[in-house]
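Tokens as discussed.
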């Protein structure tokens, strides 16, 4: 897919990031994400897109690489376009102010010192109120080029969190909670420190919080359980594909986006069931004609973050990541089982 024409002055801050580095941008349509990255990450996207079609389906659609301005150039650009920037900022205030439970300060890591950026599909586009969870994969979090100091630091993080015991940990999440019996609602934001509080035996509570939370009625609970079952199926699909690929991905995440608006979710699940009963393709596995209707966006599961990823022909599947995927799938299933009692 050709990289779209983008004007840097039209790019604004991407507010749906729940983990990773600050500095991610989006276009005016909200359909694209522009993510500053290293050469290794852009190269991994390029090689995956051109040479590994099955694996590429697990990633946000890659549209190319662009060069952004330096920090000094961006400051000058913002000065030249102060009026348009002010308009954009005012449009974002109401959205940001709904994050009542977000801790003060920036929950994201520092901006990368780079002008290189990949242009990707915004996985959260098409959801009315996207709830998002970022789950870091792997017990080993460093690649072969990491210094001894970096290895020791990341080994300490793994040892003290579920990264070490389960091969995954919750890196951040953002949940839309509708107001009980009223219109509107608010986002609850949980940063990386929240995910580090969980243990081998308690991490299921964080996943339950994301998928099920506190629902007002039995119908809402059933809808959330349906989302959870869809997610388990998607995670199994990720496992199947990774089992036949030969790469190594350190500190990669699995990103899960779910429709958070209760009314929108109910409509989408009803449409999904209707399409299933009519024998229509609802998982994107078949080639669709131009007349075919796209399935409703209920849930999306994608792999992201490849700054420390590479293809390794002849070395077999990435068991470091696969172990985390298998454990995640097992614990998600245990959450489903618990709802039956």
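Sequence:
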């Amino acid at each position: 897919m050709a990289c779209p024409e983008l004007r840097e002055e039209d790019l604004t801050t991407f507010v749906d990031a729940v983990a990773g580095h600050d500095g991610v941008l989006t276009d005016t349509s909200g359909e694209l994400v522009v993510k500053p990255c290293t050469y290794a990450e852009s190269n991994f996207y390029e090689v995956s897109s051109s040479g590994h079609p099955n694996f590429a389906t697990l990633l946000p659609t890659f549209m190319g690489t662009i060069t952004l301005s330096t920090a000094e150039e961006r400051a000058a650009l913002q000065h030249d376009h102060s009026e348009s920037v002010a308009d954009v900022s005012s449009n974002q205030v109401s959205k940001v102010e709904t994050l009542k439970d977000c801790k003060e300060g920036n929950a994201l890591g520092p901006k990368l010192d780079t002008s290189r950026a990949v242009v990707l599909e915004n996985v959260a586009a098409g959801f009315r109120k996207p709830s998002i969870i970022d789950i870091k994969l792997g017990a080993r979090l460093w690649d072969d080029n990491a210094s001894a100091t970096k290895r020791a630091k990341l080994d300490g993080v793994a040892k003290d969190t579920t990264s070490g015991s389960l091969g995954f940990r919750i890196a951040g999440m953002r949940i839309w909670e509708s107001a009980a019996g009223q219109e509107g609602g608010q986002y609850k934001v949980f940063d990386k420190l929240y995910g580090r509080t969980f243990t081998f035996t308690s991490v299921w509570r964080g996943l339950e919080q994301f998928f099920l939370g506190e629902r007002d009625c039995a119908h809402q609970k059933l809808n959330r359980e349906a989302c959870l079952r869809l997610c388990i199926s998607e995670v199994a699909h990720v496992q199947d594909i990774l089992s036949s690929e030969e790469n190594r991905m350190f500190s990669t995440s699995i990103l899960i986006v779910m429709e958070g608006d209760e009314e929108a979710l109910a409509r989408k699940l009803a449409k999904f069931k209707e399409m299933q009963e009519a024998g229509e393709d609802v998982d994107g596995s078949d080639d669709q004609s131009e007349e075919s209707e796209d399935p409703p966006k209920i849930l999306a599961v994608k792999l992201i973050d490849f700054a420390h990823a590479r293809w390794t022909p002849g070395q077999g599947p990435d068991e470091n990541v696969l172990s985390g995927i298998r454990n995640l799938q097992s614990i998600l299933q245990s959450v489903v089982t618990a709802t039956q009692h």
